[in-house]
Design brief:
alpha+beta; two-stranded antiparallel sheet; single chain; 10 strands; 443 residues; 9% strand
Length: 443
């Protein structure tokens, strides 16, 4: 009997191992992908949290030391830095600051960013209120040069004086850069900190059983909203709800979803930047790919992964900010779901069969074809902003849409060929699809 039980157990173990080994790679995400969809209008913020106020990351640190440590090492914690506390936060060479600059380092209180570009916040009285303004020069960290900066040139150019000294950061920048400001109008903490994603934490700090919003536990479509609140270019919501124009929002046009807090329905506070397929704008190429940074959400909502429930935090650790444009995790990040033998592909036997490039080469990196560099952080920056559309853009589409050839994944490496020649190579490989053939762009 013991031998029989042993062999039965052994057989079950082998069968289980076989099933596990052949299980679709997407299976671990089954629970997430099958969560009920509650729609975009439902308020998911815990009731207990609605009476809470913002307390800052220092309070969170008392219990969540590991998450705090990881966050503190990330760029989110360094988006706004106090120069007086840490002079090393300044990455610009102020000895080369142009003579016509309307600010000095001594006047600047905060730095904004630094990885790709850095801007400087100077105290100012605007519209009769104490506020901050931005200097008329920004430091391009990629080119190591100063360049003119006119913040009023964006969609709200009719909403503000064309003068940096009269351009307030309170309505244009601070909602995404200071913890608490988006929801309350108060600069609780100069950083993108814990409560930017979890909401106000005073009640939770008093009683750990009092909940805060946890995006990973809700409808996956809604999970993304904690990222989309800032990583989706927008317009002032009043343009939609009150049919106001930018000119009618004089000195009040807001470039962030004012009043939003994690868990609340973002759609009630945010109007995405407009885009119509085939029409190029200042923010998007005609195929919908990003021209600028901070457009991940605008692109991603059109992708099938988003529609099926894959979230931002499936690819990016929100505390450590892993898998970034500067430090991508490589094919492993994609192939944890998309591996050979998986029901969601790739549907070839080897990487080389899928990419037609040698394994280990740039042409066999998932992100080079599915997330090409299409955008810039400033007009004078190199192409470093990776698209989050994920669908492959054919050379013929790049040509038909009038996009610069260097934004095409193939041309980015094969500059010795024309877009037409690269399209011919794809035809020879058989890399065309029926739905693409319906488009006049593919020939």
């Amino acid at each position: 009997m013991k031998k029989l039980l042993f062999w039965l157990f052994f057989i079950l173990l082998v069968v289980a191992a076989f099933i596990y080994g052949n299980m679709p790679k997407i299976a671990p995400y089954y629970k997430q992908l099958t969560k009920p969809r509650v729609g975009l209008n439902l308020d998911l913020q815990p009731k207990e949290q609605k009476e809470a106020h913002f307390v800052g990351s220092g309070k969170c640190k008392e219990c969540h030391k590991e998450h705090y440590h990881d966050w503190k090492a990330s760029m989110h914690s360094k988006m706004i830095q106090v120069i007086a506390k840490d002079p090393k936060a300044v990455v610009a060479d102020f000895s080369r600051l142009p003579e016509d600059a309307d600010f000095t380092l001594k006047e600047a209180v905060y730095t904004i960013g630094g990885k790709f570009k850095q801007r400087y916040m100077i105290p100012a009285t605007i519209n009769g209120k104490s506020d901050f303004r931005l200097g008329n020069y920004q430091w391009n960290s990629q080119t190591k040069k100063w360049q003119h900066f006119k913040p009023y040139k964006y969609w709200y150019h009719d909403s503000y004086p064309h003068d940096n000294k009269q351009f307030p950061t309170s309505t244009t920048c601070d909602g995404c850069h200071f913890t608490g400001f988006m929801a309350t109008g108060k600069r609780v903490e100069p950083a993108i900190a814990c409560e930017n994603c979890h909401g106000p934490g005073s009640k939770h700090a008093e009683d750990p059983n009092s909940p805060v919003f946890k995006a990973s536990l809700v409808d996956p479509i809604r999970t993304n909203e904690v990222c989309f609140q800032c990583h989706m270019r927008n317009r002032d919501k009043r343009i939609e709800t009150e049919h106001a124009t930018a000119k009618e929002l004089w000195m009040t046009a807001t470039d962030y979803p004012k009043g939003y807090a994690p868990g609340k329905p973002l759609i009630s506070y945010k109007l995405p930047a407009p885009f119509a397929p085939g029409k190029e704008t200042k923010e998007f190429w005609a195929n919908g790919a990003a021209k600028k940074n901070r457009t991940q959400g605008n692109e991603y909502i059109h992708d099938r992964m988003y529609q099926h429930g894959i979230t931002c935090i499936n690819c990016h650790d929100p505390h450590k900010l892993t898998n970034t444009a500067q430090k991508p995790q490589g094919n492993a990040a994609c192939m944890k779901c998309h591996s050979f033998g998986s029901i969601i592909g790739p549907h070839q036997d080897t990487l080389e069969q899928h990419t037609h490039h040698k394994a280990g080469s740039k042409g066999s990196l998932c992100i080079e074809c599915h997330m090409p560099k299409t955008g810039r952080h400033t007009g004078k920056s190199p192409l470093t902003v990776r698209s989050h559309r994920f669908s492959f853009t054919y050379p013929a589409q790049t040509k038909a849409y009038g996009m610069p050839p260097e934004t095409n994944a193939c041309f980015a490496c094969h500059k010795d060929k024309t877009l037409d020649q690269l399209q011919d190579d794809l035809k020879k490989w058989g890399n065309l699809e029926w739905e693409k053939l319906e488009s006049p762009h593919i020939r």
